[in-house]
Amino acid sequence: MPRRAQGTSKPAPPGPAPIQSPAPLPVIVKRERGRRVILDVSPAAETGPASNALFIERFLTYVRHERALADNTLQAYARDLRDFSTWLGGRNAAAISIRDLGDYLGYLSKKGLARASVARQAATLRVFFAFLQLEGTVSESPAELLAASRRDDTIPGVLSPDQVDRLLASPDGRSPTGQRDKALLELLYATGCRASEVSSLKVTDIHLAECFCTCHGKGNKERVVPLGARAVSAVRTWFNGHRGTYATNAESIPPWAMLSSRGNRLSRMRIWEIVTDHARNAGVPPDIGPHTLRHSFATHLVAGGVDLRHVQEMLGHASIATTQRYTHVDAGRLKGIHGRFHPRG
Predict the structure, then answer these.
(1) Residue 325 falls in the annotated catalytic set
(2) Within a 13 Å sphere around the CA of 313, how many CA atoms are in the beta-carbon half?
């Protein structure tokens, strides 16, 4: 056998492949009063729908604890972002562009959403992506380029005074449910409160002897709204009548003014159903809701000559510009005033 040449060595066998360090896992962080608390470290947060769910959960935690928003606002954010995540499908929210957001808003418009609803969705996206930018998930927020939609100044579904009278006369005041429904409808029209505000009214918020109630609106802002004689009478009948029967059905003494038959607080959706049912019975447009009574309340006050600032205060509007939408609803009255006082009227 030929001898191996001196100075040569046997080639080394191939060794194991070098071990590569795993990619760092995304860290989900929650900030609590300046402290950073690690909630989760999960590879599922890298891409796809799972990451979108985590983004949304982190965002809702942030707005709940850091910004102390109202429950209704949190629920609206959750609904809007759930719809957005469904539309994204398998795409990661952190990787989309302004064109994608425009496509989404166009998709909502084609679905038949009202302009105000599309504008609210756009506002939700602006806040959501601003949060992702704050957290460092995205370097720039594509939603910053979304133009704010022009507010829709039309007033949907205003009832005439005669229609309001028929609606308020619909409940049968002799039955327990009728007493409650009459008090509810009178409160909605007499105060201009939102359904959620009437739902959260407590017995201690309603001062029948002084003829006013204390409402808690958006951002938990408190305002005082007067009560008319008919509303006071309907609420007093309900309080002194069958409300006690409904209250005994609850596990503990309920503080809420409006109760379900089980003694629980009357929900916002149930209030909507009650208004719709009585609208159908009264022969008024069946597609109305609690907000229709709010619009009618403001419209009738403005038509009666009430100062716009007073209407703003009773409605709980932060800006007078929101209340000004009611100023154009009584053109006939304005023409009469012009003809009476203007030299060339």
Answers:
(1) no
(2) 10
